[in-house]
Design brief:
about 5% strand; 2 strands; mainly alpha
């Protein structure tokens, strides 16, 4: 788009950017599915959804340590793996007792998330018309 002026600012628009991560992909369901398979393969009793939520709860705090300069830059893959290890430990599971390649695979699950459009609609969709 060329020559477009934003009505709110009167300035020329040079780029339109979207943060679509939470809109286009379903992080929780994708991670819960990977956790479910991981746990089943090891006879672990975990609530996959709760585990995914706990894992996600570490995300912003771990990024903030990098953003604030409290630790040097590391990739999101590194942060996901460190956060995974922390959540495993919080469930009494020693990550050192699991093959590193298996943990790497689980930590990389966020690379293969389900796109929102491929999910079935909620049971109450479409909403009833008034």
């Amino acid at each position: 788009m060329t020559g477009y002026t934003a009505p709110s600012t009167g300035r020329a628009v040079r780029a339109v950017l979207f943060d679509t991560f939470g809109t286009v992909v379903d992080w929780r369901s994708g991670i819960a599915s990977a956790v479910r398979a991981f746990a089943a393969g090891r006879a672990l009793t975990l609530d996959p959804g709760a585990f995914a939520d706990e894992w996600r709860a570490h995300y912003e705090p771990s990024k903030e340590l990098v953003r604030s300069g409290q630790r040097p830059y590391v990739s999101l893959d590194t942060l996901h793996r460190e956060n995974l290890d922390a959540v495993l430990r919080s469930h009494g599971i020693d990550p050192r007792a699991i093959e590193p390649s298996e943990l790497a695979s689980l930590a990389a699950a966020w690379h293969y998330l389900i796109k929102q459009g491929s999910l079935p609609p909620p049971a109450d969709w479409p909403p009833a018309e008034d």
